[in-house]
Design brief:
The mean pLDDT is about 95. α1 packs antiparallel against α2 and α2 packs across α3. The chain has about 220 residues and is of the alpha/beta class. The chain has six helices and 13 strands. Bound molecules: uracil. Uracil binds next to α6.
Length: about 220
């Protein structure tokens, strides 16, 4: 896959790779897993929000008056964690973008068809101004991309512009990336790793297993 031709940023940093090795390790317990994901999540959210519109603001330092650039607060930023694993990114997103709205997306995967099944999408009219809305969708694992495409479609139906939607994952598979790009080529993808493939059950290889189970310690 030629990542440079696609709308995708794969973050490369020694600290990120160090933490990826921790979360991939099957012997890492839930507490260490969550800590390692949190460390990576700040970089992912910063990258996802790097093109938010800015405005000039006058600020008095203790010495002089100066002009600073700040995020244009007349925009609306919607943070959309896909339940349940996407919640792991919510803390970093709310901390870095405290003026954002959170819109939880409730979806699980039908284990046979691998198709997403919706169960929660509370506020139908969440978008105030279609020209000024930026959506950041959060899901640690971009595997088949079916939930991602459904979520993107849902935000476009609500009024978001494709080019103002960013999908953030910890690990992406080529299938998921292609699925998004073939359906919504203007959507940006931010990830910490582009892995090799997915298996017949839809798990990413090498991956890290079931992200929700590892975060919430529900491995049977
Ligand atoms: N969801 C997960 O939690 N893990 C995968 O590998 C793929 C989808």
């Amino acid at each position: 896959m030629k990542t440079q031709q696609l709308n995708i940023s794969v973050l490369k940093h020694p600290v990120i790779e160090d933490n990826l090795a921790i979360i991939r390790d099957k012997n890492t317990d839930s507490e260490r897993f969550k800590n390692a994901v949190r460390k990576i999540s700040y970089s992912l959210i910063l990258e996802a929000s790097k093109n938010l519109p800015m405005v000039e603001k006058t600020v008095e330092t203790p010495l002089v008056t100066t002009k600073c650039r700040v995020i244009d607060k007349s925009i609306q930023v919607i943070i959309a964690p896909i339940l349940r694993a996407g919640l792991i990114f919510s803390e970093a997103a709310s901390e870095l973008l405290p003026f954002s709205n959170i819109h939880h997306v409730g979806m699980y995967r039908n284990e046979e068809t691998l198709e997403p099944v919706w169960y929660y999408d509370k506020k139908k009219n969440i978008i105030d101004n279609k020209d000024k809305v930026f959506v950041i969708i959060l899901d640690p694992m971009l595997a088949t991309g079916n939930s991602a495409v459904d979520t993107i479609e849902n935000f476009i139906k609500k009024g978001a512009k494709e080019e103002n939607i960013t999908f953030v994952s910890l690990i992406a598979a080529p299938n998921g990336v292609s699925n998004i790009q073939e359906n919504y080529s203007k959507v940006k993808i931010v990830t910490a790793s582009l892995d090799d493939s997915i298996n017949e059950k839809g798990y990413i290889l090498p991956g890290l297993g079931d992200a929700g189970d590892r975060i919430f310690n529900t491995i049977e």
